[in-house]
Amino acid sequence: MRKIISCLKRSLYRAGFAYLTLMMVGATDLNLNGLGFKNNKNDSQENVTKEVNLEQELVNSEMVRNATVRYDYHTNLLELSNEKMVEDNIDDEIFEMGDIPENINTLLEIKYLLEKNNLTSNDLINLLSTSRYQNASSNLFASYPGLDNAKILGLLDGNQIILRDNLYLGDSRTKGMLLSGVVNEENTVYGIGYGYSWLVGKGNFSGDKTNALNGGIEGLETKMDDDKNYNIVIWLGVNDYTYVSAKTYYQKFVELATDRWSNHNIYIVSVGPVNDNTAITVNNAGINTFNASLKEYISNSEISNLNYVDLNLTPDFINKYDSAGLHYGSGDYERIFNLVDNAIAQDDLENSNNILHFLYSVLLDYDKTNTVNEDMVSYNSIRQG
User: Fold this and answer.
1) Which of 174, 189, 205, 315 would give a disulfide with 219, using CB separation of 3.0 to 4.6 Å?
2) 235 within domain boundaries
3) Is residue 345 part of a domain?
4) Considering its fold, how many domains does the chain have in total?
5) Structural element, H or E, at residue 345
6) How far is the C-alpha of 359 from the C-alpha of 325, rounded, in Å?
7) In which domain, by residue range, is 195 found?
């Protein structure tokens, strides 16, 4: 609300300034009897000249006063911008003059400010590298390593951007997604019948069952580029939840999120249901208990890059089980993949909005700077006149 009020104040000051200027400049042609003058046809030319000069002096005095008020007002805003500029954390909204309303169309406001200040999208890109905004922009790019100028231009064109590629790690169900064609060998490691021990690389593993013989973690890292950050999707637990606790899994996920994979976003997917009529060693009651515990651990962790994706599936969601009651049909894997992909897309959308918010804040600050400069020119021209 404070930002709306600030904008309204600025608009009112502008409107008031323009109105007073027009009215007072035109006052020399008006009868100012209320000020004690007698501007009529019988007055001498000398008296009229004196009245006009005095009227103009009053007009100029009022214009100077109003210009000074507006100059002081915008200078205060600019000083607040400068104070915010020294902050290192862009999450604190570096040019915050009050919270930007959640329902604001940030992209539309950006386009308005670009047009108002006679800027193009490329001009905005160049503006980010100027001394005033350089430090804050560096923080932005550090927070979103996949961000570059081309992606910013894409955002400004209204396109959704992808900052990170996705990698997948899991058991035979992840292999099922691979076989269904929604993921590929280049971004996926799987271990058929494996679980936690395979994840951490403890034990001997068969090449017939996995494409990561040294374990899931090391196998997935062979698919990473050193200079890129990823969304890592982990779907494990159905093979060993009966003897490996949710807490054990959670502790490893925390270790990865805070150390080895601290630059990546990790998405832990809930264990999917089984067919209780045919599954022998596992059941949905046990799976639900495991999922609930793991969800609680992750939800309470407050680790920003560790996320829990609750598929919240019932056994009836699956259209086709295999004879063991553990694996699904191709269409089921596609639907589960879409659920996970949508969860990641929501985070991508939030990231895009945060970036647009930053760009909007930069333009607001730039616009205020221009406003102060315009007011100063008006103020100086009046004083010199």
Assistant:
1) 189
2) yes
3) no
4) 2
5) helix 330-384
6) 51
7) 165-328
Question: Are 173 and 309 found together in one domain?
Answer: yes
Domain membership flag for residue 95: yes
Last residue of a domain, one of 328, 344, 370: 328
What average pLDDT score do residues 320-328 get?
97
- Regarding whether 43 and 106 lie in a shared domain, the answer is yes
Q: Within 13 Å and on the Cβ side, how many CA atoms surround 112?
A: 8
User: pLDDT by residue (tens digit) across 27-84?
Assistant: 333 333 333 333 444 444 555 555 555 555 554 444 444 444 434 434 444 454 455 4
If asked whether residues 206 and 106 sit together in one domain, one would say: no
Q: What are phi and psi of 325, to 5 degrees?
A: 75, 15
Segment (H or E) for 175: helix 172-180
E strands, 136-187, where?
A: 165-170
**Global pTM value:** 0.70
In degrees, rounded to 5, the angle at the alpha carbon of residue 218 between the alpha carbons of residues 214 and 222 is: 110
DSSP labels for 75-123? HHHHHHHHHHHT-S-GGG-TT-SSPPPTTS-HHHHHHHHHHHTT--HHH
